[in-house]
Description:
Elements: H1 5-41, E1 46-53, H2 55-68, E2 73-80, H3 85-91, E3 97-98, H4 103-113, E4 118-123, E5 125-126, E6 130-133, E7 148-152, H5 155-167, E8 172-173, E9 186-188, E10 194-198, H6 200-203, E11 212-215, H7 217-222, E12 232-233, E13 248-252, H8 259-268, H9 271-281, E14 286-287, H10 295-305
Parallel strand pairs: 1-2, 1-3, 7-10, 7-11
Antiparallel strand pairs: 3-13, 4-13, 5-14, 6-11, 6-12, 8-9
Amino acid sequence: MGRSISDIRKTLKLVLAFASALIFAACGNGSSDNESAGQADTDETRSYSVGVVGDVTAEIWEDVATRLEDQGIDLEVVTFSEYSQPNRALEDGELDLNAFQHISFLSAYAKDLGDSQITPIAYTIVSPMCIFAVPEITDVESIPDGVTVAVSNSATNAERAFLGLQDIGLIKLDEEAGFAPTKADVVENTKNINIIEMDPAQIARSLGDADLITIGGDMLMDAGLDPEDAIYTDTDDASNIDPVKKNIIATTKDKLDNPDIQAIVAAYQSDETKTKIEEISGGSSIPIWTAEDNPQADYEKELAEN
């Protein structure tokens, strides 16, 4: 018995539908394979951020960031205006690293917080602590009695200032203070100086109101001051600087073994970075890292002793 036109049409529709399904599946599988292959062949860019204080330090890190691009690392440099900000941002997960402080500063921060996850991972630079004077005072020998001296109101930033003031004969410090004196450790005011404590960001602008200012680090660089114009600097031999006064790259403990974090450190601790530091800092920063460094051990020792 012959099939009706209606039956034949139904059969054709089923055949066409089945063929279309096969073609669609084949195309879909081919597309997926190609996409997978493309993803396997293309390295994904990994994004990180580092917090710094000061425009000159930021410029150094921007140079590091450029060199990391070939390794698939996108490093954002975040510039802060105050020393109180980068550790909080790192602790809160807003940053992956920061590079603005020395070990003594981090130790004081950790003790205040009580449970910090931040740890040093590498040394970077040491900045001269310089003493600048008004034009009437041309050298250490010409400092008169009764001068006004501006120092940082942050104890961990002022320690080297007090050591410097002692070194030039303006004060005497309690011997028990060691490398970490404060204003309270001044046991003799040899020349009856007036010590004014102020925010580090204000110190450079205070010269004139103050006869002498003690300044270093990013604030020295950003103020455009030249260490060669200082009447005193404490880094004639940087190898004698106490390790806790060397600046560090810090991260959180959970990122210590991250290969990308290690790559960022390696890119910083390079000859290219040394050249960049010397080129733009004008002597206000001295590269200080060595192959024998152990900043984590230095940090743990500082935490235990103070």
